[in-house]
Structure formats: C-alpha cells, structure tokens
TrEMBL record:
Belongs to the major facilitator superfamily. InterPro entries: MFS, MFS_dom, MFS_trans_sf, Sugar_transporter_CS, Tet-R_TetA/multi-R_MdtG-like. Residues 7-306 form the Major facilitator superfamily (MFS) profile domain. It holds the Pfam family MFS_1. The chain crosses the membrane at residues 7-26, 46-67, 74-90, 96-118, 130-154, 160-180, 216-233, 245-272. The keyword Transmembrane applies. The keyword Transmembrane applies. It comes from the Eukaryota. GO terms for cellular component: membrane. This is MF14B protein. Keywords: Membrane, Transmembrane, Transmembrane helix, Transport. It is found in: Membrane. PROSITE patterns: MFS, SUGAR_TRANSPORT_1.
C-alpha cells in the first residue's frame, strides 16, 4: 500500500509536516508555559523536556527493534500520532497539554524510524546525503512555521494557531496512512509477531554495554553524546531564553528561527557534501564542533538582541 515506490521523499514529507505543526506553536507555547508556571518557567520547561527525553531514551531501542520486525509504516504512524496528540490540548487544558508532552516521549522517536526508513531505501554511499536532506527538511519546516504561527496568533488568537497545527498533524497522519509505502520487505520480517524480539534488543542499557566494548563505535558515541548534550539543552530552552532573557518579541523569534533554518538548509544540502569530499569526514566533524563551541559561547555571553 502507498503511492509509488518507497523513497527518501516520503520520509521528507512526514518530517516536514510533523515539525511544521509544532513550529506553528512556538509563540503560543511560550505564552502558555509562562502563564501556567509564572514563577518557575525555566525549571518546569526543563522538567517537561527532561522527562520526555528520558522516556524516549528508554523506548527508542524497543520501537526500533519492533519496526525491524513488523515494518516501518505502522511505527511511523504510531510515533507521529503520539507526538502530535498534545497539540489540541494546549487550548483545552494547559496542564494536560504539558503532561501529555512529557508522556509522549515514549513514542516521540520519529527521527529514529525515519532514519531506518531512509536506510531501507538508499544504498550505503547515498545515506549521508539522504540523512542530510532529512535534517535540512527539519530545518525547512522551521523557516516559515514560527512566523506564520506568530502572525496568526497576533491577528486571530492562539486558538486558530492550535487549530491549524492540529489540522497539519492530521494531514501528516493521513499522508502516512494513504501515501507512504512500506520500506521493509515482508519477506525479511518474521512470520509471527514478536518472534525475533528479545529483551536485549529492547534494553537501552544493553546497547550501551555493546558500545563500550567496540573500540571504533565508542569514540563516535562519546563525540555524539558530548555534542548533543549541550545542543539538546539549548534547543529545549532556547526560544524561552530569547523571549525571557534577551527580550525578543514573537516576530523577532520567528525571524531568528527562519534565518537559522535557512543557514541549516544550505549547510546540510550544499556545504556538507563539499566539505566531506574536500577535507574528509573527521575534519568536517571537527569543524562542525568548532562552530558549535563558538555558537554556544556567543549565546551564553550575549546579552543584547543584536
């Protein structure tokens, strides 16, 4: 089932729609977060994102193993659905909204399933470019959606923004149901449900033990951990930081996100492949980490909107 042969473009559309829906909510979410927790805004934001991230860490190996056994499409549907479930609750009940965001971490691993989908439909030498395209699409979804959300919020109120975001999420789910073909051939899946799933595959700590024993993978994982740790902290509180500390308004935040998104698209689609061909994979990683250090230091020490 689905439209055409499975391809990277199916994955790109799924990612774009999901994060476009959430991008629309950038301004309303900051407002609701501050109104709900006026005295502990940063603390509660950290707790909500922390619980969500920890649950994602626990569930990601199991969902990955299950998608290996039962196919990608059903788990794309599952992850997108539960990731987007909190959206309409923003105007119904802020407390339930934030509670559902935390709990949705169990299934908020769309990127893991998307990357597995991309791996199914590409050759090994094509995957770096394909993964870059997926990452660029994530950035593209944030180029316009916060600005659109801020405009709709200022002109028509937050309720319309939430409605539009909900409709985009529904379109994403319908796209998966109707248009996305299964990428994992049925012949390589087990005949009975759960027959190839072991506790070791579902245990996130078992994966860490395997990584520790591999002298090649271990340094890569440590590099990724040390890179993603500050990046995740920045991403979870960045918009709130811009508004509460730096003094950005809704339009300024939307414009800032758009510029960052455009630069990310150009980097992922143009400069990444050029750098990897010219200076190699390792030096490209080192260059990226150097820019990351500069970026984080600039954000940390900066106190003016410019």
């Amino acid at each position: 089932q689905g439209i055409g042969q499975p391809s990277v473009y199916h994955a790109v559309v799924v990612i774009f729609l999901e994060f476009f829906a959430w991008g629309l909510l950038t301004t309303p979410m900051l407002t609701v977060l501050h109104e709900t927790f006026p005295h502990h805004t940063f603390l509660m934001n950290g707790l909500i994102q922390g619980v969500k991230g920890f649950l994602s860490f626990l569930s990601a190996p199991l969902i990955g193993a299950l998608s290996d056994a039962w196919g990608r499409k059903s788990f794309l549907l599952l992850t997108v659905f539960f990731t987007c479930v909190p959206i309409p609750l923003m105007r119904i009940s802020p407390w339930w909204y934030f509670a559902m965001i935390s709990v949705s971490g169990i299934f908020s691993v769309t990127f893991s399933v998307i990357f597995a989908y991309v791996a199914d439909v590409t050759q090994e030498h094509e995957r770096t470019t394909a993964y870059g395209l997926v990452s660029a699409t994530f950035a593209a979804s944030l180029v316009t959606s916060p600005a659109i959300g801020a405009y709709l919020s200022a002109s028509y109120g937050d309720s319309l923004v939430v409605l539009v975001a909900t409709l985009v999420a529904v379109v994403d789910i319908c796209f998966i149901l109707i248009a996305v073909p299964e990428s994992l051939p049925a012949k390589i899946r087990p005949a009975s449900w759960g027959s190839s799933i072991s506790w070791e595959q579902a245990d996130p700590f078992a994966s860490l033990k395997k990584v520790r024993k591999d002298p090649m993978v271990l340094p890569i994982c440590i590099t990724v951990l040390l890179s993603y740790l500050p990046e995740a902290g920045q991403y979870s509180s960045f918009f709130l930081y811009l508004r509460q500390i730096i003094g950005f308004g809704s339009a300024s935040i939307a414009a800032f996100i758009a510029v960052v998104g455009i630069l990310s698209i150009v980097t992922q689609t143009v400069f990444l492949s050029i750098l990897m061909r010219s200076i190699g994979n390792k030096n490209t990683v080192l260059l990226g980490l150097g820019f990351q250090i500069f970026q984080l230091a600039w954000y940390g020490f900066g106190s003016q909107p410019w």
